């Protein structure tokens, strides 16, 4: 039996089934994600918010980002985004442009599947 026949008859089928198992595991893990809506609440500072950037970190790695800019002469309005997190705990790193200043806020979040997570930022944005 040559090396080519050994690979073709013995190793190739094993590698094929391992690859199929890995694809199936990844597919199953996607269904275990926690889907949630994250709402950023600016409180009294909403009128001065020009733009907001938020990064979602899960498991110590960046997982997603959100960016929203207010139109000239208008308020930023309701700021929310949907996410599907592989773990229920994460961290939001939020950068808010208030026109003259920028504020950076870091918040730990915990989500349940289908939940709406409200992140109140009014206190941090109102302080000097």
Detailed description of the structure:
The protein is an alpha+beta fold. It folds into two domains: 1-32; 33-126, Immunoglobulin-like (Sandwich), CATH 2.60.40. It is 27% helix and 44% strand. It has helices at 3-31, 122-126, and strands at residues 34-41, 51-58, 61-69, 79-85, 89-97, 102-110, 115-120. The strands form two sheets. The protein has a four-stranded antiparallel beta sheet with strand order 3-2-5-6, with no helix packed on it. A three-stranded mixed beta sheet has the order 4-1-7, with no helix packed on it. The chain is elongated, with a radius of gyration of 23 Å. It starts with a helix and ends with a helix.
- Mean pLDDT equals 85
| CATH hierarchy, class of the largest domain | Mainly Beta
Measure the end-to-end span. 79 Å
Number of helices: 2
- The residue ranges in which pLDDT falls below 50 over 5 or more consecutive positions are none
CATH architecture of the largest domain: Sandwich
Radius of gyration: 23 Å
Order of helices and strands: HEEEEEEEH
Count of spatially separate domains: 2
Please tell me what the overall shape is.
Answer: elongated
Oligomer: single chain
Helix content: 25-40%
Summarize the structure.
The chain has 128 residues and is an alpha+beta fold. It has two helices and seven strands; from the N terminus they run αβββββββα. Helices cover 27% and strands 44% of the residues.
